[in-house]
Amino acid sequence: MSSSAVPPESGRIAVAEVATTASPATPADPKSPRTTGGIQTPLDPTRIVNPSRRRRVLILLSFPLFFLLGVPFWWWSTSIERLSLPVERIAALESAPVTTVRSTILLTSAPDAYPPPPPGVPSYGPRQVCEALGDSVIKSTEAYYKQGGRLGTRWWDMVYEGGGRDAPALHVHLLRSEYASTDFPLKPYVQTPHLGLAGIPGPGGAAGGVKAGTLVIPIHPKQVGDRYLREHLKLAITDSILGLYPSEPPEIPLRAIKYSPNVTLSFVLLNEDAAEGEYVQGWDIEAAIREHFTPHLEPLRPIFNFTIESQMLYHAPLSFEPTWTDVASQGEDVKLQIESALGEAEKGKEGAEEVAKALIEEDKREKAWMVDEEMMKVFVNSERWTLDSGISQNPVLRFLLFIPSPSHRPLLLSAPSSSPPSFLLPQFGSVVILNPPSSAPTYHLTPPALKSSFHLFTSHLYSLLALPGTPPKVYPCPPPDPRMEPSGLRDGLNRWQLESVARQRMRENEDEARKTLVGIGRLVKKIKEMQVGEEVRGRVVGAVDRLEKMAKTRDPLEAFVLSRDAVALANEAFFHPSMMGLLYFPNEHKFAVYTPLFAPIAVPILVGMLKELVAWVRRRKLRAKRRAGQPAQPAPTDPTAEEPAGMEPGGLTHSAADKLAGIGAYVSESSEEGSARGVDVVGLADLVIVGPATDRRGTLRARPSRAAQPAS
Amino acid sequence: MRFAASLWGLALLLAQLGLVLANQVHQQVNDLFGHNGSGSATTHTNNWAVLVCSSRYWFNYRHMANTLAMYRTLKRLGMPDSNIILMLADDVACSARNPFPATVYANSGRQMDLYGDAVEVDYRGYEVTVESFLRLLTGRHAPHTPPSKRLLSDASSNVFIYMTGHGGNEFLKFQDNEEVSAFDIADAIEQMSEKRRFNKLLFVIDTCQANTMYSKFYSPNVISTGSSAIGESSYSHHNDVDLGTAVIDSYTHYILQYLETLGKTSRATLQDFFNTYDPARIHSHPGISTELSPTQPDGILVTDFFGGVVSVEVTPKADELDPLRTAGSAGWVSGRRRGARGIGEGGQSSPSPSPMKGPPMRRTEGVRGWANPTERQTEGGWVGNAALSAVLLGIGGYLLIDPRTDRPGIKRE
């Protein structure tokens, strides 16, 4: 603007002023005479400041075109990806029956566990004997299921041969044993991992011992000759199989946790207040877990993966005050226990005397700190106690061993009858209160001291994981050496129970996976804003594949693995972060977002298009009139009626053309440095025509000088 | 007995007391079909609560106080902290304008500090967003979200949702920044329902036109209640002169006043709770919606939502080990003596336990985590503690120095 080629001050301002009032978006025509040379005709200024009609229309249309081109991107960026889900397959799964698996049970016998045939009758091998026995077991099982409306199905087949790698997992074995009871009924048991009776050299050791997990039917040599032995065997085998392999796996009770492949067990020893003294400063937790938990956890390896953590807390205050009240009568149980302990002590059993003493003490106790049921509900002071490390997403089962402070001893539960001071919190864990037997500054708990508590923990573990117990007709496994006393602890989890857990959890998982898939399908249909991306669809399809495959599988563990993966995939799909998608956007919201964005732009575009349309219609009319031979009418002075660059000179009146020529000369003079770009000739013409056109230059000078103030 | 009762019923019929007979028959049928007639059979084992304060800034003090008061009430009624998800802007307790720093009160007398100790805010400050709230309900979190920020409820859980903030017709503002609509919450609850993330759900909201917020719900087993009808404002209850701001909202004040009268063992039902609503005192018309729930509020206990552990199972006597099989007090070794006795005595004093039968634990893949660091830290000596303290100090120092962290109450240039 500060160039030396600037015309007189007032004129510069005038043009600038005109430029500001005109449309800034119309650049000067580069082909206009201004660049090529001077002004020859009065129409030149029009060409200079006003782009050609064609060009103007193009510019005008470029905006809608731009929006049109942007539409796909807008569509892509705002639309929700909703891939199609295999709806039909999910629907088919929903109505499909629950998957059932079929197991095979191997029935074998020691060669001497059945009576030899009488003379003259051909001798049968163990296989023939087992086949006959197996047939009758199958018959009696089916009779049992049909009888009395007990609807059930036998989900197993009996085989009589098999070994090595392909051996069926479930095995029933008839064993002749010197140490078995001589009374009927027979007392079947499931062999635990230690070497059983069969390991002892003797007539019982058929094949060097019985594999762990085998259901053993022990037969005493005296019983072999019994004429009803076959009936007894049939009854014993049928009863145990009915108990160990029920038609329907038991339902998972509410107290048990839902299936998760990873489970954390957290063992916590809590001293109520170590500052008061007489606290436990150590426990042999590893040994206790090895003794009490490993036999149950290890066999579950195909189903659960356990992580174990342990800690000791030295200050674990209760959130309530237990009540110091009279102890309810312990009842007859304790008296019996005392008697038996005294009896044992007389026989010289080590420690029995001490136990009897403790029991008598306990019985004599009149008052104690009592925890009633409402207190039990708030016993776990989760505000103050940190019960697990919380490092994983696994469900955590907490086993809390609570040592009351000296001022709260003895701490007992005011529960009916002499139940042990222990309770279970559904889906959470278990609590055992352990009152120290004697006074000492500090204690260290060795495995014997932890035995009773961990025995309770074990039974709580069974409840919390919904593990099946031992059926009533199956007896505990005898200790490896008949001279040893039975431990009284639970036998480790056996193969039959594992099978039951697998079937139970398989059903749970299948049900959960199906419900989740159906739920995803329903939600996607119902909620239109829900996104279904490739990852979600992949997982859904994976889950459906596995469920379909599972229906064809017969092997329990394989089917279980499929169900586990199916439920994991279905859950991953359901809980996939992308499924959250967009929030709900009502139409008013969309309107509120787009209106401020598009309305201001739309107004000039629409008005401009309207003007073009009007001009076009007018031109058409004009042309039609001219063709009809009528002389051209003077161009209107209406600003909307534009003088297009291509218009014939005849279209303008002489005075207007004259004036325009003058302006054009001026403009070409003053626009050397470009300040006149974008001058709309309409405005100029208007300015000139309506003004007092006495002096060409004077007009321009006079008018803008008034308007120069706001422009500067 | 039943025969006698029917005879008795017959006699009454002869005495033209048909109504009484009907009662008799009804009773007998109830007797016959046992306990399921009462409808009180609990099918849930745990309670969860989501408490949302969707406002921030000092002048919204009362919303923080509402939420914290509800939090305290839940805890008083025995709900463990791990089951309460608290979403709170949490910027008033340490606000520079708070004349009583690090406290939040819900009454003008300032009798009870709601902030106090042991307040566990799970989502705080800018974490309280519509998205995080909806993700919390639907369970769709990023994989690294810690368990404390997740609603780990299942088909056996009763879930209580409490929301407070500024709202309007079918929306609730979140931190003056965004808003959640009634449709969003309804869809989120439907997704919870489809995934069986609750057994029963109680939705309570205190905001202007609150009753519109649950008007779009369509999932079963949901009971909802709000503070004010459409077109109505919810008002605060009273101001504290020293704080210079309102300390609690009217509706929340009165429901808390009622909940204060309940104990952990209360048998009050939701109907009793709803009956305490008094529009004249609350200055708005609270709404109640029960049509989605098959069980009517007079069949649901307040403690079914506002309580802690639902049931405990006392171990039966049969599970106990025969005392003769335990060693009595033999296993209790005095800690001090133990140190003096040395290793000779049965290995009990050695730090690692004596080898037992069975396979070594480390080899078993199913049972892992033996020598995990957590155990070392909790049981191990001062070395572990010192290391932990050093790490904590380091983190603390980092937080102090790092200018990016946004901590309420500390102004940054």
From TrEMBL, chain A:
It is a multi-pass membrane protein. One of its GO terms (cellular component) is GPI-anchor transamidase complex. The chain crosses the membrane at residues 57-76, 597-617. Residues 1-47, 625-654 are annotated as: Disordered. It comes from the Eukaryota. Residues 14-28 have a biased composition (Low complexity). InterPro entries: PtdIno-glycan_biosynth_class_S (IPR019540). The keyword RNA-binding does not apply. The keyword Translocase does not apply. Keywords: Endoplasmic reticulum, Glycoprotein, GPI-anchor biosynthesis, Membrane, Transmembrane, Transmembrane helix. It holds the Pfam family PIG-S. It is found in: Endoplasmic reticulum membrane. GO terms for biological process: attachment of GPI anchor to protein; GPI anchor biosynthetic process. Pathway: Glycolipid biosynthesis; glycosylphosphatidylinositol-anchor biosynthesis. Belongs to the PIGS family. This is Phosphatidylinositol-glycan biosynthesis class S protein-domain-containing protein. It comes from Dioszegia hungarica.
TrEMBL record, chain B:
Residues 1-22 form the signal peptide. Keywords: GPI-anchor biosynthesis, Signal. It holds the Pfam family Peptidase_C13. One of its GO terms (molecular function) is GPI-anchor transamidase activity. Coiled coil: none annotated. One of its GO terms (biological process) is attachment of GPI anchor to protein. The active site is at residues 166, 208. Pathway: Glycolipid biosynthesis; glycosylphosphatidylinositol-anchor biosynthesis. GO terms for cellular component: GPI-anchor transamidase complex. Residues 329-380 are annotated as: Disordered. Belongs to the peptidase C13 family. PANTHER family: GPI-ANCHOR TRANSAMIDASE (PTHR48067:SF1). This is GPI-anchor transamidase.
